[in-house]
Write a structure and sequence with these properties.
Elements lengths: L1 E4 L7 H11 L5 H6 L5 E9 L2 E6 L3 E6 L7 H16 L15 H10 L4 H10 L5 H16 L10 E8 L1 E2 L11 E2 H28 L3 E9 L7 H14 L7 E5 L8 H9 L4 E3 L7 H6 L6 H14 L3 E8 L6 H14 L3 E6 L11 H5 L2 H17 L3 E6 L10 E5 L6 H8 L3 E5 L4 E5 L6 E5 L4 H6 L1 H15 L6
Parallel strand pairs: 1-2, 5-8, 5-15, 6-7, 8-9, 9-10, 10-11, 11-12
Antiparallel strand pairs: 2-3, 3-4, 12-14, 13-14, 16-17
The structure holds iron/sulfur cluster (SF4).
Protein name: Oxygen-independent coproporphyrinogen-3 oxidase
Pfam families: Radical_SAM
Keywords: Iron, Iron-sulfur, Metal-binding, S-adenosyl-L-methionine
């Protein structure tokens, strides 16, 4: 189905495009703005005398009061369009109502900052955003945990976190939309990439030290950072230790996501060089699915590597799982949950499958997914996590998620991943180093943020490394208001 805007409603295009994609996830921006064919159902929005008129041409229309959006026209238009489409498509309400952003917890933190109490926050989320009771409870639980632990407290603002990108993988997972390079094909570029990355790490570290800025957490992600050889890991981690880490750094994570890239020696190197949190990600423990999604490893390898990591002394180990993988049902999920529960990870990150055009899967999966099944999977997972003594500590959503739901990180009470919280809540500057890494720079006390992106292309990054570093170092000095010596 295609819904297209009438010419005179275009000023609302940006506001409502993602609302419409709640109902029609495959709708393109181009069709939405320009499709004039008979197939398109035209949507018209008029605002007149405190009233908002939303009409689906020749089908149905609604009239709304601006007060429905607490006096904000844009919010009222969103609510109007949401209700119009829900009625037209006979769609039961989305648990996330009109919220389409990927960081709903940020809204709740702002409400806490304004001094609202739990009941008042509940009322705002219900009335102005149309959230379900369950999602409101989730948000209140997670944000309360974060605030009680002072993880997003103002003090976090004077420190920074560092993200380091290793954009290489052993094979391409079918659902993946990250721009990762397959190691067998690009191995000859890896050393040059490391040279550039190390140069960036050293100079950024120096600039931070010159400005007395403490690195609170370091997160090496990808890709699959554990594709690095023993020698490369040694070299990279030693540089990180001397350039970035101090006795005030409290967390050092490396995503050892794919067990087929890990061995005993690598785990020993990580342990010896200060990595205190790793991720070993099964995604599912069903071997048939692992094979179908191109993971090139078995569930047994996950178990073996996890046990080895425990034996070597890693205290915090995360496991990622994905709900909604093709061919999986509630029994597959229960099996996965039972298997990983036997290992007792103290961090589990639960993703709902999200698909972008760059993944190998057909986007039609988004429209044809069984929403009730995915919602049930999330519920079953949540219960299992609580039974295992884990609580939800961060939450985010992605565009184009199956069933329009959310990803949730669970942890034992004392073991949240602080980097994950800082990255989602955006209350601390994060400097991103390496290909495709984004720096999120906090500009003022109101948490205004500026994103600065490193080049996404490996060759471009390598060729322009000096400019990339110069820009970043300048940005660091400018932010902390000290002149470059
Ligand atoms: S391991 Fe991660 S980054 Fe690499 S292909 Fe698979 S999903 Fe993508």
């Amino acid at each position: 189905m295609i819904i297209a805007l009438t010419e005179n409603s275009r000023e609302y295009a940006n506001i409502i495009f993602h609302i419409i994609r709640i109902f029609i996830p495959t709708l393109t921006w181009d069709d939405f703005l320009n499709n004039t064919s008979d197939k398109a159902i035209l949507l018209e929005i008029k605002v007149n005398n405190e009233k908002i008129y939303c009409t689906l041409k020749d089908n149905c229309s609604f009239k709304f009061d601006i007060n429905d959006g607490n006096g904000e026209i844009n919010k009222a238009v969103k609510i109007g369009v949401y209700k119009l489409l829900a009625s037209f498509l006979k769609y039961k309400n989305s648990p996330w109502g009109i919220l389409t952003g990927i960081r709903p917890t940020k809204i709740v933190h702002r409400l806490w900052d304004q001094g609202l109490n739990t009941a008042e926050i509940y009322s705002v989320l219900k009335k102005e955003y149309l959230l379900s009771d369950e999602k409101i409870e989730n948000l209140i639980e997670i944000t309360s945990f974060q605030r009680n632990n002072l993880l997003i407290h103002k003090e976090a603002k004077v420190n920074v976190s560092i993200y380091i990108s290793i954009p290489f993988c052993p094979s391409k997972c079918s659902y993946c939309s990250f721009p990762s390079y397959i190691i067998s094909k690009w191995e000859n570029k890896l050393e040059t990439y490391l040279d550039c990355l190390i140069k960036e790490i050293i100079q950024v570290g120096e600039a931070l030290k010159n400005n007395n800025i403490v690195v609170q957490t370091v997160y090496i992600g990808g890709g699959t950072p554990s594709v690095l050889t023993h020698k490369q890991l040694n070299r990279l981690l030693k540089v990180i230790n001397s350039a970035l880490i101090t006795n005030k750094t409290i967390e050092f994570t490396l995503e050892a996501g794919r067990p087929d890239t890990i061995d005993k020696k690598k785990l020993e190197i990580l342990k010896e060089l200060g990595v205190n949190r790793i991720s070993i990600n099964p995604q599912t423990m069903v071997d048939k699915t692992l094979n179908e999604i191109g993971r090139n490893h078995t569930s047994n390898e996950v178990i073996e590597i996890f046990r080895l990591a425990k034996k070597i002394g890693f205290e915090i180990i995360n496991m990622d799982i994905i709900l909604g993988l093709p061919g999986e049902d509630i029994d597959s999920l229960r099996y996965t949950l039972d298997e990983i529960s036997k290992l007792r990870p103290n961090n589990v990150t639960v993703h709902v499958l999200s698909l972008k055009r760059s993944s190998k899967y057909d986007l039609g999966l988004l429209e044809n997914s069984n929403e009730n099944l995915i919602a049930e999977m999330l519920e079953v997972t949540k219960q299992k996590m609580y039974d295992n003594g884990l609580i939800p500590y961060y939450l985010y959503r992605q565009r184009q998620m199956i069933a329009n739901l959310e990803n949730i990180g669970y942890c034992e009470y004392d073991y949240p991943c602080i980097y994950n919280i800082q990255m989602i809540e955006e209350r601390q500057t994060i400097w991103g180093l390496g290909v495709g890494a984004t720096s999120k720079v906090l500009l003022n006390d109101e948490y205004a943020l500026e994103n600065q992106n490193n080049p996404k292309d490996l060759f471009y990054y390598i060729e322009n490394i000096d400019e990339v570093i110069t820009e970043k170092v300048k940005a660091i000095y400018k932010l902390y208001r000290r002149e470059i010596k």
